[in-house]
Each structure stands twice: as C-alpha cells, then as structure tokens.
Amino acid sequence: MPDPAFTRDGFAALLAAREPARRPTVTAFAPISGGYSRLTAVAEVAWDDASPERFVLRGDPPPDEGVFVSDRDSEWELLQALSRSRPVPTAAPRWYDGTGEHLGTKCIVAEHFPGRSLQDALRDTDGQQHLSDLYLDVLAGVHRTPLDVLPASMERPPDWDAYVDGVLAGYAEVERELSDSNPVLRYVSARLRADRPPPVPFALVHGDCQPSNVLVTDTGEHVVIDWEFARVGDPREDLGYYTQIPMEPNLYHRDPHAFLAGYRARTGLSEEQVDPRTVEYFLVLGIARLHTQILRALEDVGRGRSRGVMATYLINAVTHLDGMFFRIARGLPSSALTPGVGPS
Amino acid sequence: MIARPTTEQVLLDCCRVLTDDVLPALGDPVAQVRVVMLEKVLRNAAVRAAGEIAWMREEIATIEDYARKVLDRTSGDPVRQALAVLTAGPRDSLLLDDVVESYCRAGDALSAALEAVLAAGCRDLQHDGEQLLEQRLHREDAVVGGWQSAGR
C-alpha cells in the first residue's frame, strides 16, 4: 500500500476504501493552480457499474507551506448541510478523508461541476446584465440562508456589538503578538471601534464570495464553491470583501449605487444599513480573518520558519490592504473623535 | 566585500533569470505561479535593499518628533512608555537588524501617539499623525509596486 499522499494513488486508495464494490479506477489526476489556500486537483474515475465521473479534491497543504488556515471538518459539515437543504447550490460533496489516512491530508472530494468561473464569464461578456444579476442572486441567496439549516457546531455570535468588537479585537491582538509594528492597523481599529454602522441580522457569510467562486454553465446553472471561510456573521462582510477583489470586471466598482440597490432589493435591507460607507466599513471586518492570518505567516517568516513563497508574496497584499483600510478609516465622520477612543 | 553589483542589482538579475530562463522552461502550472510570485518577492526585496536603512532612519526621527509633540499636549502614559522604549533601543547602529528594531519601536510610539490624539480629540495632531501614516504607506506602496494576485 502506498504512503498516503495527495496523488492519484492516494485518491485511488480512498475510493477503494469507500466504494470497494464498484471497482473504481482513477484515470486522471491533475493538480490545479489558482487557489491561494488549499491543495486542489481534478480527477477522473472509471466505475464498473456507471459512467466515468470527474471530481474535485481539496486538501490542506503541508503545515509549513500554507498561509490561510481553515478547518476541513467544519467545511465538510457545512457542505453536507447545504447539500441537504439546498438554500444555495453547491457542488455535491461525495467523500471525506477526515484523517488523511489515504491522501496524506484532510481532503474533501466533491463532484466536478461542468461550468466555468463566473469571473471569466463576466470578463468575456464585459459584465453582461444577466451574469451581474446572477452574482447578486448568489450573494443574496447565501445571506438569506436560514441559520437553522446550518450545522449546530457553527458558532453563532451572541450579539452584533460583541461580534464587531471581537473582530476588531482580533486585529489588536495580532498587532500585539507580532514582532513587527503596524501603526496603520492600530489607527484603523481605534477609528472603527468608535464609529459603527447600524446593525443588521446575522446571516451565513461565505467569507470569499467573489465571482471566481461561482461556477456557471452556458444555460445559467451554477454552484458556489470554496466554503472554507464560511461563518455566521454580518452579511455586509461579503459585500465589503468583494470590493477589494482586484480582478476585472468588479461589479461593485463599476456602479456601486446600482450594485447595492440590487442587493438591497434582494435582501430587504435598508439604504441606511447598506450603502457605500457601510460596505467600506465591512471591507475591514470582512477580510480580518485572512489579513490576520497573513500577518501571522509573515511573523513566522521573520522568525525563520518558512511558510512557502505565498507568505512572502502576500507582503504585497498587506501593503495594499493597509492602504485601503487607512483611506476608509480616515474618511469616517468626526463622530469618531470622541473621548474613550483608544487602546482597549 | 564586493560592493558592485549592489544587492539590488544582484536581485534584479535573479529576477531576469527567473523570467527569461526558468519560467519558459516550466510545464507545471503550479510551479509557474510559484516562480511568478518568487520573481515579485525578489523584485520588491531589491527595491527595499537599495534604500530601507535610510528610509527607516528618516521615519524614526520624524516619528520621535511627532510623539514628543503629542506627549506635550496629552496625558498619554502609553506614549511616554513607547518613547522610553524607543530611546533605549540601538538607535546609533546601522546594522539592519538594529535599524529594524528601532523602526518597530518607533512604530509602537506612533500607534500610541495616534491613539492618544484620537482620545483627546486633538485634530491638528491627528492630521499630522495621519500624514505620517500616509507617507509610510506611500513608501511601502513604492516598494511593492502595487498588488497583483498572481495565478488568478
């Protein structure tokens, strides 16, 4: 028996264990690039009793190579819950190597969806209206997902203010932990603590809800992929997160007011709750988990522990995010200048 | 030591080799993306190597002046403490590790000063502190040359 590894042999071993009666043969296994967090591959399988099928495998990179950390067990549970209740179409989850005994890493196997990324489709059609509408439908669909269909193990924040405080405290915590100093982050946290937008009900937040994570066919069928950063939170985090996606076309930046009007019409949220200022605010919150993970990876590099080229490459992203955060915080109204603002 | 080619020139030559020689020879798309990222990391390191000691020392001096002004106008123990830590650091050394240490201490002093002026509502000092942050970000941006998500 081969050593467990994220390879054709590893996948074959998983299938042999899970579907022994169907005599599976892995006929192709190709790693794919593009994702920044997980090992990803597309594989083809021939069965004794059915037509060949294609699958997508998502596994964790070795601990010294990845930058972004997420929990495969939670993602698997969520995928199963979404697959059962279908509030949002997802690629059907099929098997899970939850121990890495076959693939050498925790690995989710889902059915391959025969579409292309909505980002590519938008680019090739110059943001055709029905595709722009589809993206808004996806965002609203994710956020309208009833929380009671989600796994019971998924954390529900106690209340909105505590949730926002917690996310901002995450920035302060990482800044204190690091041997580097980040005065931009300290300034931004202080400003954002003091000037909050109105609350909205908690929702399922995808966490990386960009058109690249929506696959679409020519007939309009679609699935939403890459749920590893999903959580229960403020739905505006997904809106804010999308505004910093650099790939063109970015539907938000093309016409922010029309984009947000479309989102409000689909979700019933008010203009006070969802406007360009609140979206900017939630850019800072929506990317907090990823930003702090990048900073921790850079800290590792600074301490001589390699995290792969991705970590050092993402210094660029930190600079980019710091600049955006600063502009956002600096634009906050003067109500932020109240006594009590300061280190918590 | 061999001073020329400079560190910047050595790194930029490595970038050229990666782009012109290594990348075209690679068939594996994952490896291709890694090389693109590596080239960007080395290019940024070249820019940093050319000027980082001078830039950091310049910023340290400006931040220290600013923090002292803030200390005069606010009752900020954290600012006083941060300044004490900064002045106790290896400020006269030009060794990179020492300059980085002083720069980090200065960064903490700037953070404390900004938090103090926000709490006290000193808008003029807030404006001055924001200018320092803006200059810092402008320089960082010049080093990295913008954000591109390689491979996507």
Helix and strand arrangement:
The complex is a heterodimer of chains A (344) and B (152).
Chain A: H1 8-18, E1 25-31, E2 39-46, E3 53-59, H2 72-85, E4 93-97, E5 107-111, E6 116-117, H3 118-124, H4 129-143, H5 160-177, H6 183-194, E7 203-205, E8 214-216, E9 222-224, E10 231-233, H7 236-243, H8 251-254, H9 256-267, H10 276-286, H11 288-302, H12 309-313, H13 315-330
Antiparallel strand pairs in A: 1-2, 2-3, 3-5, 4-5, 6-8, 7-10, 8-9
Helix pairs in contact in A: 4-9, 5-6, 5-11, 6-13, 7-10, 10-13
Chain B: H1 7-25, H2 29-73, H3 77-87, H4 96-120, H5 123-144
Helix pairs in contact in B: 1-2, 2-3, 2-4, 2-5, 3-4, 4-5
Can you give keywords for this protein?
heterodimer; A: 344 residues; alpha+beta; Phosphorylase Kinase, domain 1; Aminoglycoside 3'-phosphotransferase, Chain: A, domain 2; 3-stranded antiparallel β-sheet; globular; B: 152 residues; mainly alpha; 5 helices; elongated
Structure description:
The complex is a heterodimer of chains A (344) and B (152). Chain A folds into two domains: 8-111, Phosphorylase Kinase, domain 1, CATH 3.30.200.20; 116-336, Aminoglycoside phosphotransferase (APH), C-terminal lobe (Aminoglycoside 3'-phosphotransferase, Chain: A, domain 2). The model of chain A is unreliable at 334-344 (pLDDT under 50). Chain A contains 13 helices and ten strands. Helix content of chain A is 43%, strand content 13%. The longest helix of chain A has 18 residues, at 160-177. In chain A, helix 5 packs antiparallel against helix 6. Chain A has a five-stranded antiparallel beta sheet, with helices on both faces. Chain A has 344 residues and is of the alpha+beta class. In chain A, a hairpin with a 7-residue loop joins strand 1 and strand 2 (39-46). With 152 residues, chain B is an all-alpha fold. Chain B has one domain. The longest helix of chain B is centred in the middle third of the chain and has 45 residues, at 29-73. The model of chain B has no long low-confidence stretch (mean pLDDT 93). The chains are: A alpha+beta (344), B mainly alpha (152).
